[in-house]
Amino acid sequence: MLEPVSRRRSAQRGFSLIEVLVTVVLLSIGFLTTAKMQVSALRSNQSSLLNSKAVLLSAEIMEKMRNNPVGVENGNYSNKTTSGANAAPCGAAGCSPAQLAARDLFEWSAHFMDVRGVGNGYLPTLPGVSATQPATGSISNPIDGVYTISISWQGLIDGEPVPESFSAKFIP
User: Fold this and answer.
1) What is the domain partition of the chain in residue ranges?
2) At how many degrees (to 10) do helices 97-109 and 17-66 cross?
């Protein structure tokens, strides 16, 4: 026997308001968790980028030292930092090993300074150690012919500034 049309409709049920609200809450939690993971991934990527830049900066000064073995042998790269490095002028005949070392250190130190507004100014490669102190690079005195190249800067972990550093041992 066939049931009347009105009776069939009353047997059909849709979603209740509570089911819809539960679904919306669960989806919202999922989206918020995904957004939090994205922010965390971006922070990790920033930290990795700064570490990569520090590796490249240390490789740069290592290469400069390899290209000036007499300057290395004479101690022109020993116990040097990027703060206060000055370029030594070279004569018409070219640079002496000491002048080349001074120029190399000056060029390397330019990556650590904020020179916006000066000539073709640019931002430093790494963020400063603090608001008033730029990132620093240093080359230690060699111990048994092994130099230590250290670079320090300020990173962020969970939005808080933290000191970060990279160091590499190097035999020219």
Assistant:
1) 17-170
2) 170
CA 138 to chain centre: 17
Flag whether pLDDT at 55 surpasses 70: yes
Tokens of 130: 């603090």
Q: In what order do the strands lie in the sheet with 147-157?
A: 80-81, 136-139, 147-157, 160-170
Residue 134's Cβ-side half-sphere holds a number of Cα atoms within 13 Å equal to: 18
Question: From CA 153, how far away is CA 137, in angstroms rounded?
Answer: 9
Query: What is the predicted pLDDT for the residue at 97?
Result: 92
Each residue's pLDDT tens digit, 31-42: 999 999 998 887
DSSP state for residue 22 in the 8-state scheme: H
Asked whether the beta carbons of 101 and 68 are under 8 A apart, the reply is: yes
